[in-house]
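Schema walk-through. Below, the input block comes first and the output block second. Nothing else is stored per chain. Lengths vary across the set, and this one has 50 residues.
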Amino acid sequence: MARRRGHTQAQTLAASRQAESGTTVAEICRAVGISEQTFYGWKRKYAGSG
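--- output ---
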């Protein structure tokens, strides 16, 4: 079984900031290597952080 790569909170916040600056969610997800579902989960989890 493959081990999950994992991302730091800083990486999740950086992805969220990119979305706020106008980059599409699809582009961000491709660059980071995550699904859109994961992105929105992060956004919900870390809302108001940073």
